[in-house]
Design brief:
3-stranded antiparallel sheet, single chain, 4 helices, alpha/beta, 5-stranded parallel sheet
């Protein structure tokens, strides 16, 4: 199986910092932001973006609050439940402030068909009513099956359906952060 690394650790950090700045600019500051990472790799990415936002905001970081990063398990909202075995290893964790009237930024590693994000939107509607929902992804690989697009993208990586894009994060995979493209017939 051929593989090539398209983003290394420094590239991932720069992409996440750029996304953090774009989120603040689009929101016109930190007020009312909630970051929800989609397990598995979206959660540490959301935590890193949250840390970046606190760093960027400096003295204004108190507007973010202490608890503005959470996770959103979408496994029970997927449209392929009959074809997959579902285990809820990462329960939903919503910040104590809730999401009603706030700007929710969904964070995921790779945007592909859009089906995971559709499931996330369904999950959010069961939890509350945010004022806006935005999407931040480290990688947008194309091949959308639903009319969903990311608001904040670290890297656009047009790819063949026969390729697999793997995001490796030190929190989950150990070692260095990286984004790797592999030749594979496995679909994500």
């Amino acid at each position: 199986m051929a593989e090539r690394t398209v983003l290394q650790s420094g590239d991932v950090s720069r992409a996440l910092m750029r996304i953090s700045h774009q989120i603040l600019e689009a929101n016109q500051g930190p007020e009312g932001l909630v970051l929800l990472g989609i397990p598995t790799r979206g959660v540490p990415l959301a935590q890193r973006i949250g840390a970046n936002l606190q760093q960027i905001c400096g003295d204004d970081a108190e507007e973010l609050g202490d608890d503005f990063v959470g996770s959103l398990d979408v496994s029970m909202y997927r449209d392929d439940l009959r074809r997959r075995s579902i285990t809820v290893a990462h329960p939903t964790s919503i910040p104590a402030s809730g999401i009603d009237g706030r700007t929710v930024v969904l964070v995921d590693d790779v945007l592909y068909s859009g089906r995971t994000i559709r499931a996330a939107l369904d999950a959010i509607s069961d939890i509350g009513r945010p004022s806006a929902v935005r999407l931040a992804v480290l990688v947008d690989r194309g091949h959308r099956e639903l009319p969903i697009r990311a608001d904040f993208v670290g890297k656009n990586l047009p790819s063949a359906r026969s390729e697999r894009i793997d995001v490796l994060l030190q929190e989950i995979d150990g070692g260095e952060d990286a984004v790797v493209i592999r030749d594979s017939e496995d679909e994500r």
